[in-house]
Amino acid sequence: MTGASTRPYRFAIQGGPFDDPVALSEHAQRIEQLGYDELFTSDHIGAPFSGGRGGGKYVVDPFAPLLIAAAATTRLRVGTLVLNNEFYNPALLGRTAASVDRLTGGRLVLGLGTGYSEAEHNAIGVPIRAPGQRVSRFAESLEVLRSLLDTGTVEHRGEHVSVVFDDLGLRPEQAHLPFLIGGHGRRVVTLAARHADIFQFTGLTHGEGGMPTGGGFALAEVVKRSDWLADAAGDRNEEIERSSLVQLVAVGADAPSDDELAVQFELAVEVVRDTPFILNGTVEKVVDKIGRLRDQLAITHYVVRDAEVFAPVVAALAE
To answer: How much is the pTM?
Structure first.
């Protein structure tokens, strides 16, 4: 099992009023004031995803809001969480990422994933590959992106991706633009061990049509993936920041108990108590749980979706 991390805690928000520039500017300024480190968008298309999962009700382009949020703040980092790799040619994505990093003063975090929604692919007429093929293409895309963003050059001729550039013509502001890779399967975890600056545990498994479920919420499942990551990363292990994409936060004296949430979500009480994807209870209880998870899994980075509710925890851990 991965040992406790010496990294400082960092906190981020996914979601916001991304279709309203004034409200978005105010939102970004507010979360910066509250002590959050990052603001993330998501990458979905179509009304079926406007109800919540993936960071709010606004299904907009994942990059455009980042420019507004960065312009309204001074230190807030901005990023995508996570891009559906199947939607992108990696060379064009590299150009966009380099452009956005320059326009935000070097504050971009590039969040990447394999994609999963059959309905989204059907809607835009792009057949979704089988899971194994998606991961194989993801591996090639990561190679291309890392080379383009680090050096501006790439020569890759693979099964799924063929890109040759002597010079992309543009470099990011950051010498090393950080990759956040989120996923659950062993091949994705292994790719993260090689390429990720941040690896995000999601706890999500995917059923028919790619519908996400909490099939990986149990602590034992997260420990397994933490061990996969550590084993595959080798000397890179300490370089990779470990993150949790929290699916529910409820903080305060009136927050639902573990027993209540276990009934609500049809989970065992010990799963609710121990999982890094549910943070509920008093500030003291949540802070204690985050400390345990740091010791057990080396998780120091948390992404939540309710800035105000979680703010007392951010303030407590800042102290």
So the answer is: 0.94
